[in-house]
Amino acid sequence: MKELGSGGEWWAHPVGIAGVRLSPGQTVVVLDSHTEHRRGQKFPMADYALAHLLPSAEPGVQVSGVMRLRVAGVRSADLHLKLVHTDSRLVLRGVPGTRWRSLLAERRQDLAGGGFVPLWDEAEPSPYELEDEREFSSLMHTYRDLAWLGSGLLRRIAIFQNFSTAYSTRSWITGDEWIFELDTHRDVPLAHDVFLDRLIDDVWGLPLKVTRSYCDCSLQGTARRGYQCTFYLEHQHPDVPGVMQIRFRWGDFVYGNDARQRLEDLNADRNWLDRVLPVRAGRPNGPAGRKDGSR
Fold this sequence. Notes:
Blueprint: H1 2-5, E1 17-23, E2 26-31, E3 34-36, E4 42-44, H2 45-53, E5 56-58, E6 62-64, E7 69-75, E8 78-83, E9 89-93, H3 100-113, E10 117-118, H4 127-135, H5 137-145, H6 147-154, H7 158-162, E11 168-174, E12 177-185, H8 192-199, E13 208-214, E14 226-235, E15 243-251, H9 259-265, H10 270-276
Parallel strand pairs: 2-9, 12-15
Antiparallel strand pairs: 1-2, 3-4, 5-6, 5-10, 7-8, 8-9, 11-12, 13-14, 14-15
Helix pairs in contact: 2-3
């Protein structure tokens, strides 16, 4: 969740994940077909996932990607991943025809040509990873503290698509907070209570509770540029660390006036688009603005 959600890309689904399928002993993450970079470059989501997830070292600098993540095998369109010295398993499922072996070979060649060291075939934790874990121990500790949240959100990724009115979902980690920024256009109700109700549902949601909130919905209809409602959620048990901050933003487009077209080009579901970015007769998609952003 953290690595795929970083950057300023566009996706047909939040962080490029079309769905998650749970089965005994493993989790299958179904990827979108493509992602679009802020510069307008469109490329396979499978390639994007490898670049962000698989660890590699720049000697004397640091390790990029997920520490201790390893390739366990390839089966058709499925890339099997594991963590060193654990029983964890994750499957990345690309679109039909995804050639993981070719993508891995290309990734290895590109890294080697730039002086980087690929680490995803190492049987043990590499010296580079061990050094980074020592050097950035507090940061590693924070990521471990937030692992329960990322794991739970990954398994409930559909909430972002089905119960949010946002056309863009961005996320990043600052300190002990995992921040999510959801942007809704002013032609669509913000409806953050619906999303939060599903997220903290006693049966289907996560064991979270709202500890602080700042709601500006009273400004709807009067705010000239829009407004933001912010909610802070923590685990119901006080001893579990980590905070989820959700910023629900409502107003004019902040990622350019071509948002709907860019999502259509990525084969986003038309019914979903009609709900979050409805076309208004005689009106463009929105005013000009920044050209970067994430879905």
